Amino acid sequence: MPDRPPPKPPTRAPGRVKEVTSASNPLVKDIRALAQKKHREETGLFLVEGLKLVIDGLDAGWELSTLVIAKAASDNPLLAKTAARAVASGADVIEASAKVLEAITRRDNPQSAAGVFRRRLASLGEIDLSGKAVAVVLDRVRDPGNLGTVLRTADAAGASGVVLVGDTVDPFSLETVRATMGSIFAVPIARAKEAEFLTWRSRIKGLVVGTHMRGETDYRAPDYGAQPVLLMMGNEQAGLSDALAETCDVLVRIPQAGRADSLNLAVATGVMLFEARRGVLAL
Ligand code: SAM
Fold first, then answer.
1. What is the per-residue pLDDT across 214-224, written as a single tens digit (0 to 9) for each?
2. Segment 12-58, tens digit of pLDDT
3. CA dist 106 to 56, 111, 118, Å?
4. What residue ranges line ligand 1, CB within 6 angstroms?
5. Which domains does the chain have, with CATH numbers?
6. Are 57 and 64 in contact, with CB atoms under 8 Å apart?
């Protein structure tokens, strides 16, 4: 029997194009409000800056709600093509004055485009832990730049997802999205309370590696290639909670020279990810 075609995503009616010249326009106010976590949570929307990121999001199949483009640059062929693609996908397009784009992006020299996308979170069950998959767990990550850099690094290393445990910074804040450089659209992100995570973890078949300043195993020692791996990274100040550290199969440490107490969280995650994926990544 032939394979069934994949289900088609629901189609939306084409969007509309509007010109907006005043920063006090309600549409602009709504987009500006996405700087607040509360408003992102209520609407399920988030803002990305720059044409490249908008195209990344569209290419990855994320739902674009509104595209804002600089009216002055609307004859740029790629911008015009993206605007047409956005309208066809059901998004509204705002042709904005420079002042409006400055207000939306809160920058003096704004990019020529910004996009409002519908956010997506994965469930824990959607994080792939089969074969040689490697996923990252972040305990109570607090710094938006760190989270964005971890997402970008996880994407580059081919990680299957990032799980945010406990009270964490919002992955869809403007600062985090900026730091991902587009990887926000590439890496599945799940969020869980610690207890919920521990229940999920108890069902995982694979190696759970915790990184810890008091780890007694060199980070290069575990056999990362033999089974799926969960890499657990601690909070910037407090490290891994006791409950999370206790659930690990092994606690590893990256040896350090010099006077620094520890590595930055995102740097440590990069070192761990590329070690864990060494057998899979080859030039
Ligand atoms: N004061 C914290 C502590 O004692 O755990 C330092 C936390 S460090 C800034 C943030 C996280 O990065 C750590 O919890 C750990 O996951 C990882 N990390 C940083 N340096 C590390 C190292 N040398 N070895 C293993 N993990 C490290």
1. 999 999 999 99
2. 888 889 989 888 999 999 999 999 999 999 999 999 999 999 999 99
3. 22, 11, 21
4. 211, 213, 215, 233-234, 236-237, 239-240, 253-254, 256, 262-263, 265, 268
5. 17-118 (3.30.1330.30), 124-281 (3.40.1280.10)
6. yes
- pTM score, whole prediction: 0.93
First to last CA, the chain: 39
Who contacts 26 (Cβ-Cβ below 8 Å, separation ≥6)? none
CA of 226 to the centre of ligand 1 (A): 25
What H or E segment, with its residue span, contains residue 242? helix 242-246
Which ligand 1 atom is the nearest neighbour of the CA of 264?
Answer: 9
For atom 5 of ligand 1, the residue with the nearest CA is 239
Condensed to tens digits (0 to 9), the pLDDT of residues 248-269 reads: 999 999 999 999 999 999 999 9
Sheet holding 207-211, edge to edge: 189-192, 161-165, 134-139, 229-233, 207-211, 250-253, 217-218
As a residue count, the chain comes to: 283
Nearest CA to ligand 1 atom 25: 253
**Closest of 85, 14, 15 to residue 56, by C-alpha:** 85
Cβ proximity of 118 and 65 under 8 Å: yes
